[in-house]
Amino acid sequence: MKKGLALIAAASALAVSAPAYAQDGDGTFTGPWVAGLVGYDNSRAGSDVDDDTRDDDFHDGISDVAYGVGVGYDFDMGGLVVGVEGEWMESEANTRYDRNSDVGLGIANLSTGRDLYAGVRVGARVGENAMVYAKGGYTNGRYNVLAYDNVTDTRTNVNLDGWRVGAGVEVGITKNAFVKAEYRYSNYTNGEIEAPSGATTPDFDVDVDRHQGVVGVGLRF
Length: 221
Fold this sequence. Notes:
The chain is mainly beta.
């Protein structure tokens, strides 16, 4: 978490203080874009949670590959680039419990569902075809829960709302194509449980941390 915030602070400072390499703006980072994304995804209990589980491995959360698509629109104003963006991601992270093992009072398998994000980013151009940027906005994550007691399977969704910050670098490889890499940290602060019938519980407070490192390949139009 501290390393992530340090990276974000550094990118933000550069976005404000970097020299304007192209004061008139040549449009390199202007216009709509779409990108395919893939990377590492980790969800774990936040710092306010006493995660005293019997499974020591669960203290490290659940991790696996994540993949999805991002879209956005940037405004190249010379040395500074300002944009809006959104994402739909999926993740393979889950607890991988074995229902044939000792279930005690009952166990639940937790898998990561879709991950939505909408926010803004601010970047500083570095040379003619690259920029570093910081980002932030709203995120909503879904976690799928399968609970069982050796008799009945119960499936529910847990939808969590929170905020996300991140930082990255984007490099143009042709006039329209680019690659990028970024780190993002999300914190979910409230949630609701959604039953198979569609009925939902009242919102409740949570503290869930999410760390992601992704790379992307995209096209600007």
